[in-house]
Amino acid sequence: MTQAVTRVAIIGAAGRMGRELCNAALETEGIELAGGVERSGAADSLGADLGELCGVGKLGIAVTEDPPDNAEVLIEFTTPVATIEHLSYRKPMVIGTTGFSEEQLTRIEEAAKDIPIMLAPNMSVGVNVLREVVREISGKLAGYDIEVVEAHHRNKKDAPSGTALLLGRAATEGRGQDLEEVAVYGREGVAPRREGEIGIHALRGGAVVGEHRLIFYSEGEEVEIIHRALSRRTFADGAMRAARFTASAKPGLYSMRDVLST
Ligand code: NAD
Questions:
Q1: Cβ atoms of 19 and 236 closer than 8 Å
Q2: Is the CB of 118 within 6 Å of ligand 1?
Q3: Is 236 in the same domain as 221?
Q4: Residue 102 and residue 77 share a domain
Q5: 11 lines ligand 1 (CB under 6 A)
Q6: Are residues 236 and 198 in the same domain?
Q7: Which end of the chain offers a freer environment for a tag, N or C, measured as fewer CB atoms within 10 Å?
Q8: How far apart are CA 71 and CA 6, in angstroms?
Q9: Which residues 6+ apart lie within 8 Å of 52 measured at CB?
């Protein structure tokens, strides 16, 4: 039986993730690359050939300001403001953008009443499996001090990363706590550790794709969990899996947990 094809448009096509997503779309069975979208001021990329932009040679698809009508799923890796604007296309969406405010997240939840939306600050299989592991061991290591340290390339806009928050939230879920009540973002001056707090620290530099460390300290031992993304392709492959899932999903807000459980 031939596999049904999902036609996707990449929004933010000229970005670090956008180029990787175009490559993944071209190489993934069951995915067809229908278009690439860039912001109105992106003079270098608007009108350019999408394949040439992504380094795979001419495809005969021009980068446009709006997704083509035949795109079934929009894959959005841009900025929070742009993502919220693009909800108005009212098409199934895979959202990888990070750094949303509470108000912006509410807008996404509202839109998901009418369209399927898969929202994940990290689309790698490893991080999403780790999320379950962290939830379990933070409950078992109750009373251990938790610190989260993340590192990303020098151009990353939001801090801490969406993944650091996701893993911090998993740790608090494992202890029946609320991350917002126990998180401390960096420390400065006189800042003794309060019982139960979770320190979250962001390093920025060079070309680091993404590294997350969770450390559990007691007086007698230290347990450390590390995830390193070795290439952006790992996120792009997760986004393709998410696009296949979202194309046939009912309206609603989904996470990578839903995608990976199918
Ligand atoms: P980037 O700055 O390299 O690329 C963003 C692209 O979006 C740029 O080309 C920009 O011109 C374009 N853009 C901005 N506004 C737009 C608009 N209104 N319409 C169309 N295009 C627009 O950034 P990046 O490193 O590719 O990261 C993009 C986002 O993805 C960030 O929020 C980052 O944190 C997130 N990210 C998520 C994952 C994940 O697995 N979920 C992985 C890596 C990065």
A1: no
A2: no
A3: no
A4: yes
A5: yes
A6: no
A7: N
A8: 8
A9: 58, 59
